[in-house]
Design a protein that fits this description.
Amino acid/polyamine transporter I; about 0% strand
Length: about 450
């Protein structure tokens, strides 16, 4: 194994100076905290919020429709431990080595494993992008836009981020989009949930009686916590931002905030869906349009409108981050320029991957009679299986003393990492078994 730690990419120097100029400013009283907070939030928060993509929010909402207020609300909040453990390793690996995950695999485990990860990640990301367009267009159709216009507007907004200059500006824009996730909190409040029922769910962890597919929903819930692209995205984004090993504490705070926000928003989606509990049939087949119509009929037009806009926003943020993970991974594999500081003319192949991925997904979505529900299920299954080897490599690299030095995993960190990895791998196998059993 080669234990050489790569030098920071020169393209990150502009952001490094911008980032460090803020965090190194002298004490300014009460504004000091706000400046630090503004500087530190970024890749960790974005990766976690984007994991609550359109498909994920639909899944959480459907869980609420199926089971109401109960076990799944405290369970989803407990997943903060899972997401933080994995994302903290990805953050630490990137900031300490200043090398992306794809290149680290190539250096330490060979080009074959690198090619496997790049090909499978890109393929999975393409399928996931297709599911994002399902959610985004459903959210815009409720405003009265036709299907093709909704698809075109979604495509335009995803691509528009490329015209802005510099990583810092693009990150701030993405954070603004992510802030609109609060829509799901508003929708949950508008359904007037019973605080007594929510309190009882935490006290009793009550399991719904007579639910034969309860285990499938638990598997899907836990599987939603981690997506393969997040690991590739987070490390590369921290490097591009200019975060280094001396800033690990700030990176951990950013990651922790993101993981907490992620599970809180997911819990709100379950609570919102619980307002439809007992009112809908064939819950497992519900799509975004059916959910929006159900909210409109049973809860009100404004909650339905906001839920649709929330799905659009979730799909938009996820599409940006997922496409960036593909671009960073592919560009790193081929040694291309790969910084968001670069203009399109400076890194044409990096941006070509980003633009091409989104355009192909937008065009594919318009193919008539496309089995969208089947694609959504298959995407989830593939994602679960791709996560397994990625977690193994992540745990091995983060525990490599020659590579990480004093920042390698602690004993407790290793126990957590391998326990979570084994659990997620086991859940991926169970998810595949359940899926195949349902198809056969």
């Amino acid at each position: 194994m080669n234990g050489v730690i790569s030098a920071p990419d020169a393209s990150s120097s502009e952001n490094q100076s911008r980032f460090h100029a803020i965090i190194s400013q002298p004490n300014k009283g009460r504004w000091r905290f706000l400046l630090l907070f503004w500087a530190l939030i970024g890749p960790g928060l974005l990766a976690a919020m984007a994991d609550n993509d359109a498909g994920g929010m639909i899944s959480y909402c459907v869980t609420g429709v199926k089971f109401g207020i109960g076990l799944f609300i405290p369970l989803v909040l407990c997943l903060v431990i899972v997401t933080y453990t994995v994302q903290e390793m990805a953050m630490r690996l990137g900031t300490v080595t200043q090398t992306g995950f794809t290149k680290l695999i190539s250096i330490h485990y060979g080009h074959s494993w690198m090619r496997y990860h790049v090909i499978t990640l890109f393929s999975e990301n393409m399928l996931t992008l297709l599911t994002e367009f399902i959610g985004m267009t459903a959210g815009l159709i409720i405003l009265g836009l036709p299907l093709w216009s909704s698809d075109a507007l979604s495509l335009f907004l995803i691509l528009s981020i490329t015209v802005f200059t510099g990583y810092w500006t693009k990150e701030r824009l993405a954070l603004l989009i992510g802030a609109l996730n609060i829509i799901f909190v508003v929708v949950a409040a508008m359904t007037h949930p019973s605080m007594a029922a929510i309190g009882h769910a935490f006290a009793a962890w009550n399991v719904p009686a007579g639910s034969s597919d309860l285990s499938w929903y638990i598997i899907a819930l836990i599987g939603n916590a981690i997506a393969p692209w997040m690991i590739f995205y987070q490390g590369s984004a921290y490097i591009d931002k200019g975060v280094i090993a001396d800033n690990l504490r700030l990176g951990r705070i950013d990651t922790c905030i993101g993981c907490v926000v992620q599970v809180l928003i997911a819990a709100c989606a379950i609570i919102a869906g619980a307002a439809l509990y007992g009112h809908l049939n064939n819950v497992a087949a519900l799509g975004p349009a059916a959910l929006i119509n159900a909210f409109d009929t049973l809860v009100g037009h404004w909650p339905a409108l906001l839920f649709g806009l929330g799905l659009f926003n979730a799909g938009l943020l996820a599409s940006i981050t997922i496409s960036l993970s593909s671009s960073w991974s592919v560009a790193e594999a081929f040694g291309w320029s790969k910084s968001l500081n670069d203009k399109i003319s400076d890194a044409p192949r990096f941006y070509a991957v980003y633009i091409g991925s989104v355009v192909v997904a937008a065009v594919a979505f318009l193919i008539p009679n496309l089995p969208l529900n089947f694609i959504a299920v298959i995407t989830q299954v593939i994602g679960g299986f791709l996560t397994a080897p990625i977690l193994i490599f992540l745990s091995l690299l983060a525990n490599n003393k020659q590579l990480m030095g004093k920042h390698k995993n602690s004993l407790f960190g290793n126990i957590c990492a391998w326990t979570i990895s084994a659990t997620l791998i086991g859940l991926a196998v169970l998810l595949l078994w359940n899926t195949l059993s349902g198809l056969l």
